[in-house]
Amino acid sequence: MGFFETIRLALAAIRSNKMRSFLTMLGIIIGISSVITITTIGSSIQKTLSNTFNTLGVNIFDVQLYPNLDLDEIMSSGDVEYPELDEDDCFTDEMILELYDKYPGHFEELSNASVGGANAVSNEGRKGHAMLSGASGAYIKSYKMDTICGRSITLEDLIGHKSTCYVSDIFVRQYFEKGTDPLGETVSFILDDGRAVDLTIVGVYEYSNSVLGTFSPTEKEEDKVTPVFMPTTTAQDITHAEEEFKSYFSVMWNTDEDPEMLKKELQDFFDKKYKTNPDWTVTITNESDLLDQINAVLNGITIAISVIAAISLIVGGVGVMNIMLVSVVERTREIGIEKALGAKEKAIRRQFLIESVVICLIGGIIGILLGLLNGLLIGKIAQHLIASNYSQFSSIFSISVTPSFKAIFISVFFSMLVGIFFGSYPAKKAAALDPIEALRYE
């Protein structure tokens, strides 16, 4: 009896007992669908987080001071004595400017400074409302805002303490007559304390609810207050802020170069600055490092839950073995006839083993399809809930349903393995039947 003939007989046996075969497959279907559903959800969460991080921007390095601690001493004594952070230990603006000079065009600090609310009244009496803020170009770029015309704040604006500003399209409609080109226009903003700040518009951005916040549904456009960005250094001049000594800041890289190489450049630069400092060192981290840690945790959780769900496959396998043993008893006379016609034990064993594998394989395929459908439905429900309850984040947080093809392959292989393992004993028992006794069986 050939291999394909054996498969045909296995399918015929399954068709002749459809309900019993389906109930036999049910344990396999539930186990495989549970595993596929869980792995699909896990990989979908990872893909969604990855897309969200990319939308928000992962080309950012966090530079932070970290105490130089002797780990061996801590382990032996158990006491941790942190060094005191002085101004001489902190990062300075001069240090950051030196970084720009050494690696021109590579990095830009994400800096910001609050100035306060302000109003601007045009010659025609039109009033624009603003929340004045100091920001670097990198800080603005990290928000992924769309520029309608002009440009954002540049590094030259910061270094030169220029009186430039980057305004919203809402502010433009409030302050200017329709059809007026706002670029190059100087606007006099009146602060809450009565001081006037004259800023020249160099760019207009499109206000985004998902990035900057949603207004009240009842608020009219002429009353809306939107951010107006100026160079951080200019904002500090307005607020008379002293030089900031900081132990932490962030920079955005502005090149297409390998981030690992850029990270090494940063690390080398600050290692040289702090090589004589016995108390403090500098650590460089990236948003992708955090994403890697989250993915590692999600992988661990997904694997653990999948293993628990896969336990049901053992129950399904026992069911397969039970039904195959019943099938051997029911087909005892058939086995006797086959042996009487010259069928060898190997052929009988293979017949029942393949039938067991086919049952598990069909159950596995149904389980995979059901698991993928479950994952898709859960993703659609999650997306609907986000759109209904958190519509302001829907543009940056989009559910991406991504099945794990590795899990699908393993599931198919494992379902076949279950069929082989739990079908071996019934197949062996069928092959060992005495042909004379089998022919007498009623």
What spatial form do the alpha-carbon principal axes imply?
elongated
The helix-and-strand class reads alpha+beta
Strand content: 15-25%
Helix content: 55-70%
Order of helices and strands: HHEHHEEEHEHEHEEHEHEHEHHHHH
Ranges where pLDDT stays below 50 over 5 or more residues in a row are: none
Q: What separation lies between the terminal Cα atoms?
A: 25 Å
Number of strands: 11
Radius of gyration: 35 Å
Biggest pleated sheet = 7 strands, mixed
Average residue pLDDT? 79
Secondary structure elements and their pairing?
Elements (H helix, E strand, L loop, with lengths): L2 H14 L1 H39 L3 E8 L3 H7 L15 H10 L4 E3 L2 E10 L5 E9 L1 H5 L5 E4 L4 H5 L4 E5 H7 L10 E6 L4 E10 L3 H4 L13 E5 L1 H8 L8 E6 L5 H15 L6 E7 H44 L1 H9 L4 H45 L15 H27 L3 H6 L2
Parallel strand pairs: 4-9, 6-8
Antiparallel strand pairs: 1-10, 1-11, 2-10, 3-4, 3-7, 5-8, 7-8
Helix pairs in contact: 1-13, 2-11, 2-13, 2-14, 11-13, 11-14, 13-14
Can you put this structure into words, describing what you see?
The protein has 442 residues and is α+β, with helices and mostly antiparallel strands. 55% of the residues lie in helices and 17% in strands. It contains 15 helices and 11 strands. It has helices spanning 3-16, 18-56, 71-77, 93-102, 137-141, 155-159, 169-175, 209-212, 232-239, 259-273, 287-330, 332-340, 345-389, 405-431, 435-440; strands at 60-67, 107-109, 112-121, 127-135, 147-150, 164-168, 186-191, 196-205, 226-230, 248-253, 280-286. Strands 3, 4, 5, 6, 7, 8 and 9 form a 7-stranded mixed beta sheet that branches. It has a 4-stranded antiparallel beta sheet with strand order 2-10-1-11. Helix 13 (345-389) runs antiparallel to helix 14. It is elongated and about 110 Å long.
